[in-house]
């Protein structure tokens, strides 16, 4: 056996003997993405273990989990999707609520004193951004607000649907729409601060946005099992709770 063949054989042998990765993947609802960046930093600092974050709408992430995406923990924008995963056998443990979210009306150019839900009926408001209510819980809450005010049918044709909270935020901050609905956590993030004006909407006009997380199934010998359980526990710690509160969650 020449040297090159021996080196190749030895490399393959080492690769086969290497320890499987303990790095976990956390599926994260778009409204929580900035919070999760800080929680990720604190968790990695405290444990020395790494995590990856995949961001999307809760509905789309649920579909990916159903189709076998290799996620370890799911941090949703509601309780419905994690509950669906639990009922379908995707987890041995029931989902737990980690925070209550808040809905805002946001505009890049309309001054805060003028900004209110009734203004959306005005002729000068041509387009209104909203997360897709089929897959994004904050979009569902926005529809509830419009219906409670008797405005939905009057402004339905003005609605522009974003795939997620993140895309809806892009529509608003780019000025492509006059106003839009979003999560308080997004407008409070460092990336979005001072990007226009917003008002926090009356929480009695929509169902409480209870946000839950769920620990997804792992085999008993999975190298990710311990880290996943550790991160899931950290998500409900005092340190994580303080970060959630910083972004307007209750």
TrEMBL record:
Any GO MF annotation of the entry: metal ion binding
One GO biological process term: molybdate ion transport
Keywords: Metal-binding, Molybdenum, Signal
InterPro entries: AvModA-like_subst-bd, ModA, ModA/WtpA
Pfam family, one: SBP_bac_11
Keyword Nucleus appears in the UniProt entry: no
Highest taxon above the source species: Bacteria
Positions annotated to bind molybdate: 58, 165
Family: Belongs to the bacterial solute-binding protein ModA family.
Name assigned to this protein: Molybdate transport system substrate-binding protein
Originating species: Dyadobacter psychrophilus
């Amino acid at each position: 056996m020449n040297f090159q063949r021996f080196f190749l054989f030895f490399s393959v042998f080492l690769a086969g003997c290497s320890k499987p990765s303990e790095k976990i993947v956390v599926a994260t609802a778009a409204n929580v993405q900035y919070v999760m960046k800080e929680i990720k930093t604190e968790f990695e600092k405290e444990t020395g273990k790494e995590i990856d974050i995949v961001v999307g709408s809760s509905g789309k992430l649920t579909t990916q989990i159903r189709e076998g995406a290799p996620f370890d923990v799911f941090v949703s924008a509601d309780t419905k999707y994690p509950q669906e995963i639990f009922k379908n056998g995707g987890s041995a443990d029931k989902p737990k609520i980690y925070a209550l979210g808040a809905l805002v009306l946001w505009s890049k150019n309309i001054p805060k004193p003028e900004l209110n839900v009734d203004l959306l009926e005005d002729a000068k408001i041509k387009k209104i951004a909203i997360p897709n209510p089929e897959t994004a819980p904050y979009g569902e809450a926005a529809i509830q607000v419009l219906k409670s005010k008797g405005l939905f049918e009057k402004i339905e044709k003005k609605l522009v649907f974003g795939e997620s909270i993140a895309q809806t935020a892009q529509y608003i901050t780019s000025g492509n729409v006059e106003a839009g609905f979003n999560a308080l956590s997004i407008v409070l993030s460092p990336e979005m601060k001072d990007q226009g004006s917003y008002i926090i909407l009356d929480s009695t006009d929509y169902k409480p946005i209870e946000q839950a997380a769920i620990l997804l199934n792992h085999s008993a010998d999975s190298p990710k099992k311990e880290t996943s359980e550790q991160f899931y526990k950290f998500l409900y710690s005092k340190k994580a709770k303080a970060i959630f509160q910083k972004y307007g969650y209750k």
